[in-house]
Amino acid sequence: MKLIERLETLFTKFMGNEIFHKDSTIKALISKIINKDLEELNSREEVYILLKAMTNAAKADGIVDEIERQRIVEFMGDMSNVEKMFVDYELSKSMNIEEFIAEIPSGMEQQVYYMSLFAIDLDSDIEREYLTMLANRLGIAHTEVDDIHESLEADAA
Length: 157
Description:
Elements: H1 3-15, H2 17-22, H3 24-34, H4 38-59, H5 66-76, H6 81-92, H7 97-103, H8 109-119, H9 125-138, H10 142-151
Helix pairs in contact: 1-3, 4-5, 4-8, 8-9, 8-10
């Protein structure tokens, strides 16, 4: 399935056909993809991957607390209603780590880990295990993981 079809399916599925066809943000995104504005597309894809990194990390312990939700909202900045619905959708759906790992473009591994750590309070063994598994699956060296934790002044995984 082409990216354009995946986006249309996703937006239509969780927002309804009517909203999809009326919202200018979505229309602009679809237009960019159709017109092959790759710079904009890559930027949007990267934001989507980083958003998923944050929502997956927040869901890792089974509880998305208010601090985690606030960090995700902070990352997204000023959001339209559609974008807020999208964040809520990502937070509510079940996590498929294998699918997510497969979506991460080469070169974004450290960014994904960084944003995953940024999104959460590393206050449970489940979250530590999630981050350890994520780093391992992404092929991030332990020294790089330590550097990321140090840059965020976070506990070690």
